[in-house]
Records
---
Amino acid sequence: MKHLLSAADLSLAEALAILDTAEAMAETQSRQMKKLPTLRGRSVVNLFFEDSTRTRISFEAAAKRLSADVINFSAKGSSVSKGESLKDTAQTLNAMGIDAVVIRHHASGAPHRLAETDWIDVPVINAGDGTHQHPTQALLDAFTMRRFLCGAQDGSPAANGTTLAGKKVAIVGDILHSRVVRSNVNLLHTLGAEVTVVGPPTLIPVGAETWTSRLSYDFDEVIDDGPDAVMMLRVQRERMSSAGGGYFPSPQEYTRAYGLDAARLARLAEHAIVMHPGPMNRGLEISAAAADSPRSTVLHQVANGVFVRMAVLYLLLASDEGLDA
């Protein structure tokens, strides 16, 4: 596989190759000298048409720790704001002799378009496209689950080849607007987990019943089923016409039915972990008690994102086998 465009494209062998390589990358980052010479002389472009903090900085840190040169491109203040097309931007970058493109775009399918044309002839990594996919987020989430739910269950490294077979994962909240949930459903199914997506009917997309996951509208019922991990999704109010946009009666009502508060947190199994891809709306989908509890893995997810993205860049740019593990 030359590109990483969708979690659905990954076979079990490819997913495990990335996760196992990420464990190797994590081990190198515990050393005093964190920088590796692996991608010295290579240039990686972060091509971001949407605002981002965590993902862009994570990819930048990953590339730099592999000694790559990083070019950060923002649509704001660039020729895109003057009307330049994605094709022209891509061809301009290609003419500069870059080695990889990390792209985030508001249009679903934009990374695929970039990868499937002759505009550019380098690996393309999808850093989020519309409401479609965010494969490296799913990979870092799976990496975090492996560490906390398999083996020692304390966040320590997982053994190579470890899957998530039999683990129960609940993904709760704004399913409609989330690319994170779509990628996680794909990858977690590949890794053997049992996934349940939970949200109000107005925030469940058409066709969700055909996904490789269970669908529920009752968060409390799902908690009673004993999930090993609960992933809370941000309510994406910027994609709604107003604060609630008619998707739910009020923020208070949403929190009452679908928020992870202290009471629901206390009902989770002792080993269960709380996840969130960030940024969090504290007091809406997740309470401070849950976000800051010892079982929260939010900051671990951020740290693990660097290891996973180092692994993806390494496998696409430096490994002889690429992602065809």
---
Amino acid sequence: MIFDKLIIYILKHLPKFIIRLIAGKPEIIDGNQLDPNIQIVAKIAANKISNNRITVEDYRNDAIELEKIAAKKLKEIKIYDQEVNLCDSVNKIRVYSPKRVYNKMPAILFFHQGGLVLFDHLTNDHFCSLLSKICNAKVISLNYRRCPEVNFPQPIEDCLNLWNYIQSNSEIYGIDQNRVALAGDSAGGLISLTLSVELKFKKIKPIAVCVAYPWVTTSMENQNSLITCANTFPLSRETVDFFRQTVFPNEININHKWANPLAREDLTDLPPIIIATAGFDPIRDQGNLFAEKIKKNGNIVKHFFFKNLSHSFCILGSISKEVDRANFKIASELKSFL
């Protein structure tokens, strides 16, 4: 794997024409052309991903392989880890702080990807550190409980409890409780958007929401990207189906409002929302539909469509300069609201 990481690092810094030669015939789906660096890494990953994944452990083992090539945190960002008591569970958090720390800083609560089944609070280490640097904010990443060890909606309950915990302990963390944003990718996007609706009538509500390639519905209808992007890297239609079956066994809670922000009727008066979607992503269409719906409901929305990137691009900064530019753009937009 060390050799693979070296290859990936070198690929990122090669001239574009050499990258295109190595990548071969461009991968084009729905008129979008995949970033050639990601195309090359997808080929490398294909040799490491099992074709016989059945159990949760099988999928988690493959997720570990993806994490090995994830970009690392920025060195100048300080971190510390701790455990916090969130009502009925004890959860790990990682707190990221920029160089310049002062009292009553803005904060970002971050919820990681993984279909509510995979990964943990360290998966997006680089992106969380980037958010901390660009936004000059403290970022708190939560290791919420995952399915099937717990049942839906307990993972989201953990995240709601983190919001309440930080609000109650804002002075201890040096945080301005009126400047706390929510952020997350994929399933973490689902969590952030669900909380934004649940908290909108609170005295103190999120100042902004920032999500990337969010999962916003359990419905599989009217989404052409589930067909055209069925075999994309790193998220495939088969993995989408696995998440649905694992989080909602026998379809228990599959229509729960917390799992379906796209279907909700109460999407007015939300905080400003930054939403990023990717061209090579089975759940691309549902993210785009959600962006359109919240715009029509009169909310402040900044929607960025990165047509040449894939699902999970937030962790792929070690692979592609295009990813770096996308991540910087997203972080910079969130800064404007903090």
